[in-house]
Design goal:
- By secondary structure, the chain is mainly α.
- It has helices at about 5-15, 25-40, 45-50, 55-60, 75-85, 90-110, 110-115, 120-125, 135-140, 145-155, 170-175.
- The longest helix has 20 residues, at about 90-110.
- The radius of gyration is 15 Å and the shape is globular.
Length: about 180
């Protein structure tokens, strides 16, 4: 089996669990994120990143109950580390930075905080809260910061119960196109 087959199997199996305190499963959240990216015309790598951005929750054996216990497991780093063996940096860096992007947007975009779900507000606190103005400026200067911000916004919107999206098989081509050569 290839890593793409393994990831599809991982999401089909473990993705059925609830996505934190949200009204969707991990799989529904991933599919909605990827569908939003695809609808905006994102490239193959960014669609793959949108699909896989929370893979850290699925591969982390210690994730269950961590947020409720006040622990940030840094799922973004777990996912980036796990996936970096197979995927190009254009997939990995938005995944690695999607939490920092939330922290940045709270500081830089008026009204953004008010759009966050209750579960996302809780995780924001655990993840260090809003960036200072200086931290936000530094984040925005990073290569790929714009892709991380785009991914973050899809992440925030991808929490709609019973939303219609393509299935995992639809995203196989995006995943395969984003593999390292």
């Amino acid at each position: 089996m290839s890593i793409v087959d393994d990831l599809i199997a991982l999401y089909a199996d473990k993705g059925r669990s609830q996505y934190g305190g949200e009204p969707v499963s991990q799989l529904e959240h991933a599919l909605q994120s990827a569908a939003l990216a695809e609808a905006e015309g994102a490239g193959e790598a960014l669609v793959a990143a949108a699909l896989l951005h929370d893979a850290g929750h699925l591969v982390d054996r210690h994730a269950d109950g961590a947020a409720e216990a006040g622990i940030d497991r840094q799922h973004e780093d777990i996912a980036a580390g796990y996936l970096s063996r197979w995927f190009v940096p254009e997939v990995i860096e938005p995944i690695r930075r999607h939490v920092a992007a939330k922290r940045c947007l709270v500081t830089t975009e008026r009204g953004y905080f008010e759009t966050l779900s209750e579960a996302s507000v809780l995780s924001l606190k655990l993840q260090g809260g809003a960036f200072s103005t200086g931290e936000a400026r530094l984040f925005l200067a990073l290569p790929g910061a714009e892709d991380a911000l785009r991914l973050r916004k899809w992440d925030d919107l991808a929490k709609v119960p019973d939303a219609k999206t393509p299935g995992l098989a639809h995203y196989r081509r995006h995943l395969e196109a984003a593999l390292k050569a």
